[in-house]
């Protein structure tokens, strides 16, 4: 599907489409072609959106869970009916192939259904002969959702669905690198949600900063870098906002000497290069036991050469693509330059790279030292260091960096041993014999500098609620 220049995009305030005097255009990372104009919201428009959400909250908060589930079911129907358009928009702004755009939209609808089914219910916390104590879950109010660029639709709808099913109103701010698909989704959904309940505003860091200090916003949910997360936490403190931060993860995989080598290679390569490594829980470092290091590395290179090559035609099915924006492209290039300056062994498998687009070949770095940028920093791009280990205690010390608390993987035939290692890894999600990918049924959070609080699963929904304890006396005073 070619570039459709006729598409229009709007901010959505109180159910209305809004244009703006100020606009910007995003560059297609695959071709460097300028895409559509998109309005940039002002702080005054955020005030309007917050006022509309505050008003809508007075009735939306009292809807039943079944009523909210019905609205989310209608949102799923809207997404399904417009899946082709949303997938095409998402793939253009991210640089993904059409296949990857379709995967994102398909996974989005499944995820919303699961979140809707997990709404917190009242339950008895304690009961004895004297008292019965109920827990009930009340919505917070207006939620600001500040979203990333790597999977703009699915990562936005985690926050949207979580806020709505718990009775909150939500204002979504997509990344300025990928505003289109999210704004289009918000626009399309206005037909099935009450005005003010679900709004969308495009803007940069200044708009996000205003969200964090706004007195009428009750919660901020942010996915992005640790540096920005720390600023958001500080900005939210004066108004005591509830806060969820899903931040960076320099995630490690540990490959034990007893693995099924073919399976471990396939899974670690997928974890490293799916979406060109641009996943929050992508495998960022692979630690392979020295007994199998050479055999693993040989098979890993063959796997990457076969499956993770540059395909510049976005209509051709591929799970590998360009880096999604120039800023991240420059970050990855800096890491490659550091590895080259150190004289590290690097290998990629491309004879040529397209002249246009933010293309970096899948690159393997062998035996890098721990202080190399490609090891100590999160690449968020198509580079992977393959490292040796000998002793369990030693490898765990190397794996458990302060910036590595989001995800990890362990590969071993001995599941009990793998689980024992997993419990010693300081990360919110650890995967055994599979690459790292969130599951909407499980709480997703980070340790240390990888986050605060979490999303998904029943536990994730509780962060969108106040929990109220109602104590009912069984001893009548009358």
Automatic annotation (TrEMBL):
The keyword Cell inner membrane does not apply. It is an enzyme of class 1 (oxidoreductase). One of its GO terms (molecular function) is aldehyde dehydrogenase (NAD+) activity. InterPro entries: Ald_DH/histidinol_DH, Ald_DH_C, Ald_DH_CS_CYS, Ald_DH_N, Aldehyde_DH_dom, LUC3-like. Residues 20-470 form the Aldehyde dehydrogenase domain. Keywords: Oxidoreductase. Transmembrane segments: none annotated. Coiled coil: none annotated. It comes from the Eukaryota. Belongs to the aldehyde dehydrogenase family. This is aldehyde dehydrogenase (NAD(+)). It comes from Coniella lustricola.
């Amino acid at each position: 599907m070619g570039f459709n220049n006729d598409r229009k995009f709007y901010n959505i305030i109180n159910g209305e489409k809004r244009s703006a005097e100020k606009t910007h255009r995003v560059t297609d990372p695959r071709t460097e072609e300028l895409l559509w104009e998109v309005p940039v919201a002002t702080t005054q428009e955020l005030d309007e959106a917050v006022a509309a959400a505050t008003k809508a909250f007075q009735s939306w908060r009292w809807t039943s869970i079944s009523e909210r589930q019905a609205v989310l079911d209608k949102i799923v129907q809207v997404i399904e009916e417009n899946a082709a358009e949303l997938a095409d928009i998402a793939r253009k702004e991210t640089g993904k192939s059409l296949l990857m755009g379709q995967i994102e939209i398909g996974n989005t609808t499944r995820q919303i259904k699961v979140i809707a089914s997990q709404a917190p219910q009242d339950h008895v916390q304690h009961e004895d002969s004297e008292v019965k104590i109920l827990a009930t879950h009340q919505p917070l109010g207006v939620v600001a959702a500040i979203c990333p660029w790597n999977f703009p639709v699915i990562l936005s709808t985690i926050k949207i669905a979580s806020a709505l099913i718990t009775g909150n109103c939500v204002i979504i701010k997509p990344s300025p690198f990928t505003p289109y698909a999210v704004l289009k989704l918000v626009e399309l959904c206005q037909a099935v949600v009450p005005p003010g309940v679900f709004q969308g505003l495009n803007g940069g860091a200044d708009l996000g900063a205003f969200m964090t200090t706004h007195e009428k916003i009750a919660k901020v949910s942010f996915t992005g870098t640790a540096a920005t997360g720390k600023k958001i936490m500080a900005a939210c403190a004066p108004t005591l906002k509830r806060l969820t931060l899903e931040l960076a993860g320099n995630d490690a995989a540990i490959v034990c000497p007893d693995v099924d080598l073919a399976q471990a290679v396939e899974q670690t390569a997928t974890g490293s290069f799916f979406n060109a490594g641009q996943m929050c829980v992508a495998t960022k470092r692979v630690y392979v036991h020295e007994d199998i290091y050479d055999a693993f590395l040989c098979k890993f290179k063959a796997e990457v050469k076969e499956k993770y090559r540059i395909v510049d035609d976005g209509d051709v099915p591929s799970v590998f693509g360009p880096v999604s924006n120039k800023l991240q492209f420059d970050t990855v290039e800096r890491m490659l330059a550091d590895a080259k300056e150190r004289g590290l062994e690097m290998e990629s498998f491309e004879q040529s790279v397209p002249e246009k687009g933010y293309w970096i070949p899948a690159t393997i770095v062998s035996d890098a030292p721990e202080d190399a940028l490609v090891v100590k920093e999160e690449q968020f791009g198509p580079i992977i260091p393959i490292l040796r280990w000998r002793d369990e205690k030693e490898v765990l010390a190397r794996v458990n960096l302060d910036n590595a608390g989001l995800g990890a993987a362990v590969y071993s035939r001995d599941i009990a041993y793998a689980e024992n290692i997993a419990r010693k890894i300081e990360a919110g999600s650890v995967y055994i014999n599979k690459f790292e990918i969130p599951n909407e049924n499980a709480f997703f959070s980070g340790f240390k500098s990888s986050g605060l609080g979490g999303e998904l699963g029943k536990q994730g929904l509780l962060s969108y609620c106040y929990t109220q304890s109602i104590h009912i006396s069984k001893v009548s005073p009358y």
